Amino acid sequence: MKIYADPITVNCRKVLAGMAFLDAPFERVHVDYFKGEHKEAAYLAVNPNASVPSLADGDFVLWESNAILQYVADKMGRESAYPKDLQKRADINRWLLWESSTWFPNCYAFLVENCVKPLLGGQADPAILAAQAEQFHKLAGILNARLAKHAWVCGDAPTIADIALAAPLHLHPYQQLPLSDHPHLKRWMTERVEALPAWQNTYVGPGFTLTRPA
Ligand SMILES: N[C@@H](CCC(=O)N[C@@H](CS)C(=O)NCC(=O)O)C(=O)O
Fold first, then answer.
1. Please, which of 5, 149, 159, 179 could form a disulfide with 53 given CB 3.0 to 4.6 Å?
2. For residue 107, with 0-12 CB atoms within 10 Å meaning exposed, 13-18 middle and 19 or more buried, which class applies?
């Protein structure tokens, strides 16, 4: 399999950590996000959305990071990471859809305001951050309540739902996400997800931001 990705981006980190989590062998094709290589003709032939990541498995091409996680989990026969049981799978699918439609866009706003804008010489907009904080607390509260009951999002063992839901937080100290109001969510991220070798081995490094907050 080939994964077209720039590990600095949320959805690429998700898929690269997911490939490691699923023990899936692959070759990474670097698509430099900040150079805009995802908008060039060669890459548009792979993914007409001009977004990363994408997967190629022979002639089969797949985009949408969560679809890639589902495909690779099934291909690798990793049932504990993506159980076949009807309701367990529906539960995971629900969190994958929630992540893509709701959680990612909200966390991404913090990434743009507190990381990308300063990196490009601009400033965060406090009005955008205030508006997004209200939505963040609503969504984080939903995840926090779930994690009050289970060690991992879908039970006692990590699944692809954990990898997907953690990705939008992957630079949380730089994003300045207000995690402290959500102790179960914070503990899950810092003590469980960040302890996974698959997560640690795909760390993007501090180069993305100017300084790491204390
Ligand atoms: N729903 C897509 C979203 C992919 C996406 O938006 N990727 C971002 C990087 S995290 C991107 O390439 N954006 C294009 C751009 O900013 O020009 C997925 O999950 O794969």
1. 5
2. buried
For 139-169, the pLDDT digits (tens) are 999 999 999 999 999 999 999 999 999 999 9
The distance between the two most distant Cα atoms of the chain, rounded to a whole number of Å, is 49
Is the shortest distance between the CB of 170 and ligand 1 below 6 Å? no
Q: Which of 146, 52, 49, 165 is nearest to 100 (CA)?
A: 165
Q: Where in the chain is the domain with CATH 1.20.1050.10?
A: 86-201
pLDDT of residue 212: 46
Q: Does CATH number 3.40.50.300 belong to domain 86-201? A: no
136 C-alpha to ligand 1 centroid (Å)? 20
Predicted local distance difference test score (pLDDT) of residue 205 = 62
CATH superfamily of domain region 2-75: Glutaredoxin (3.40.30.10)
**pLDDT of amino acid 174:** 87
